[in-house]
Amino acid sequence: MAWVLKMDEVIESGLVHDFDASLSGIGQELGAGAYSMSDVLALPIFKQEDSSLPLDDETKQPPFQYVMCAATSPAVKLHDETLTYLNQGQSYEIRMLDNRKMGDMPEISGKLVKSIIRVVFHDRRLQYTEHQQLEGWKWNRPGDRLLDLDIPMSVGIIDTRTNPSQLNAVEFLWDPAKRTSAFIQVHCISTEFTPRKHGGEKGVPFRIQVDTFKQNENGEYTDHLHSASCQIKVFKPKGADRKQKTDREKMEKRTAHEKEKYQPSYDTTILTECSPWPDTPTAYVNNSPSAAPTFTSPPQSTCSVPDSNSSSPNHQGDGVSQASSEQLQPSATIQETQQWLLKNRFSSYTRLFSNFSGADLLKLTKEDLVQICGAADGIRLYNSLKSRSVRPRLTIYVCQEQPSSTQAAGSRENGGSAPYVYHAIYLEEMVASEVARKLAVVFNIPSHQVNHVYRQGPTGIHILVSDQMVQNFQDESCFLFSTIKVENGDGVHIILK
């Protein structure tokens, strides 16, 4: 009887040992850092539900994976998205990994793909006003970019491009079969987009997003392949390290039960799949060797006065605007380019650009010009090349009254061909002195001879044109004007009718 009891104990201890071993095996499988959900579903406890789950071969794997070499915060709850702290201007590596299985996407094997990296807003409220937010940032930080590539440190990237109109995006080509790492620098900090309030303020979160495209039939990189992103906050230099240390110290003070509600801090940040950014990607064309955008000249335009606003039967525009006539054309020769530089106060750079034609100079990006000429002159040269004219605050149209206007009108009715020609006067300051000065320039009257400008009122009275009157002019108003000599003097008065 004792022998039977002893055998029962041996069998029972063996079963317990086997059961513990099987559980320890499960623990090792689930506890080792990276695992796939398909491996978990393959465990014996899930076998009975396998019929309703997709097979491993049917599980769609993302073709690429992007890993940013920056630690995640330990103060993030289990079911929340990871958060990574970055230092302003510091270079961070994003590894571009080929995640395809054998035979997946054979159409891109041996070919290059294009990736666009962006820094965008995480909050949907700021996403709706992104354009205004970025314009405000650009105004406060002229010549700077929100996102840059550290090209000397990057590996395997080809044909890098930045668009002057997209300060928060960089793009490049790369070969998935080769090791590729893009080092990025984020120059905007999270507190630059928060409202100015009393006390401490929390910075807004950003997202780093990577969109990858393949070539279409025309050789343009517009066919979307994969997108992924992660949440970040950007601090002033060394601020991210201090914030990471603070979060770690806070977590160490929590109890073991509270720590279970938070994610551990990982050394790297894996970008998770997301929808592609809605902007249409800039197309790369195979036969386009130039890495800089080409700026084209705006078409010359003429302005005409509507019939309903004119007191004369015929009128026409006064030709090309001054900004358009002074713009550098792509067809400009080297000599014409040198003259343009001198005329626009860039004489100190004529020797530097001594071999540049108009097309060569127009191909330079804003970043190129800032690097060559410095921030102040580089931005000024870029704006001059783009002919960014200041929009006038008020436009009026003025025509010099012909002598014997009654007879002139009658001759036109009888088949005469002498039209009234109006000139556009663009006002930036909306003061009476500017009206007098610009009228004198347009109609070749010496400015020192213009004594006063009057407006003809009811019953033919002459009302002195003051600053307040100019500010109450209706935009695109039309006037006939005449001049009368000042008694006992050489000056003239201008009468607007």
Structure in words:
The protein has 497 residues and is α+β, with helices and mostly antiparallel strands. 27% of the residues lie in helices and 24% in strands. The chain contains 14 helices and 18 strands. A hairpin with a 5-residue loop joins strand 15 (450-456) and strand 16 (462-464). Helix 10 (366-373) packs across helix 11. The longest helix is centred in the first third of the chain and has 30 residues, at 2-31. The model is unreliable at 1-5, 21-58, 280-325 and 405-414 (pLDDT under 50).
Range of helix content: 25-40%
Taking pLDDT < 50 over at least 5 consecutive residues as the criterion, the unreliable ranges are: 1-5, 21-58, 280-325, 405-414
Strand content: 15-25%
The number of helical runs is 14
Which class of secondary structure composition applies to the elements?
A: alpha+beta
Largest sheet: 7 strands, mixed
**End-to-end Cα distance:** 131 Å
Rg measurement, Å = 36 Å
- What does the average pLDDT come to? 74
- How many strands appear in the DSSP assignment? 18
Shape by Cα distribution? elongated
